[in-house]
Amino acid sequence: MNAQNLIDTAQAIFAGDKGLLAMDESTPTCHKRFAKLGIPQTEEMRRAYRELIVTAPDLGKSIGGAILFDETIRQRTSAGVPFVQVLADAGIIPGIKVDAGAKDLAGHPGEKITEGLDGLRDRLKAYSKMGARFAKWRAVIAVSDDLPSRSGLEANAHALARYAALCQEAGLVPIVEPEVVMDGAHTLERCLAVTDEALRNVFIQLNCQRVQLEGIILKPNMVLSGLACPEQASLDQVAAATVTCLLRTVPAAVPAIAFLSGGQSAELASERLNAINVRFKSRVPWAIAFSFARAIQQPALEIWRGKEEHVSAAQQALLHRARCNRAARRGEYTTGMERT
Ligand code: 13P
Fold it and tell me: Is 306 left (phi over 0), alpha (psi -120 to 50) or beta?
């Protein structure tokens, strides 16, 4: 492992207030989103959609890295250029999702464990040869009155740390993603408590597995009220709760925190990222950035709907969201940007 290379990669992704575009939906997730819009669920449609994304003009002005899926890292444009090459030419660093998805955790009704450690060392080597410079692994943490369990949190944190150590050994920056999901009627305070405990477990395990914190990217959820909670927290409450939680749990050695969007609307995700940066950017030791999938892609997907004649308008919608989130990193996003 060359530690300096890891640090350089993590810095390069977020330089110039850019962020990450997550476009690593597994085939079933991609098909679920296609089905809602009547888009045919075929390999060619998945390829065409990903081509729309990677060829969007000027994407590299707001996006420093793109997380790909196993199928996508092997695909090419209709003109035969590998997507990895198109991204590199646009100044966007390619990365790869390497987990094999969240499965039921035995003995823990309602909880998940993320799989994919077996054979990971060899897969990381292969992805590195294909041009990936970072990787992603997502743990899913559900919230209820009595979930998550301590053992569920520990199992997921352990898997994240084993993955992160293997990534660093292979020279890839691990994106460490423990996602406390928004589903449920829990309050902001409950989300804060669960996220706090999840992150504490993650950093204990990262340290146990000798992961170098300067060479990771943390991808957490924002601290939010559950989707079904009758009292939805304000922008300021979300910003304060999120930063309070991160300051208590995330060591200053971590270079960057890039939030997932988790099903928030695209505009709310930008507003909240902006509020966090406006109020706290000068007071936190890490870059506060984004690694959104739905909050960047969804408006574009809804315009495209599988139609060649909508590609250009869909690309404009994608670029708009990428620009809004870059502005939010600077604390310069306003809802007025949505009307221009
Ligand atoms: P969302 O931004 O849609 O939550 O996706 C981020 C991601 O990469 C989930 O693993």
Answer: left
Taking the CB of residue 105, how many other CB atoms lie within 10 A of it? 19
Q: Look at residues 212, 221, 201 and name the one whose alpha carbon lies nearest to residue 158.
A: 201
Interval between CA 284 and ligand 1 midpoint (Å): 23
Give the end-to-end CA distance of the chain in Å, rounded to a whole number: 46
CB neighbour burial string for 134-155, b if at least 16 within 10 angstroms, e if fewer: bbbbbbbbbbeeebbeeebbeb
Which H or E run includes 45? helix 43-54
* Ligand 1: residue whose CA is nearest its atom 9: 260
| Amino acid (one-letter) located at 239 | A
- Ligand 1 pocket, residue 293 CB under 6 Å: yes
How far, in Å, CA of 282 to CA of 98, rounded? 34
Buried residues in 72-95 as b, exposed as e (16+ CB within 10 A): bbebebeeeebbbebbeebebbbb
- The structure's pTM equals 0.98
The rounded Å distance from CA 134 to ligand 1 centre is 16
**Is the C-beta atom of 262 inside 6 A of ligand 1?**
yes
Name the residues annotated as catalytic: 177, 219
Interval 81-140: pLDDT, tens: 999 999 999 999 999 999 999 999 999 999 999 999 999 999 999 999 999 999 999 999
Task: Look at ligand 1, atom 10, and give the residue with the nearest C-alpha.
Answer: 138
Q: Can you count the helices (H) and strands (E) in the chain?
A: 12, 10
The answer to whether the CB of 199 falls within 8 A of the CB of 250 is: yes
Residue of 207, 267, 275 whose CA lies nearest to 236:
275
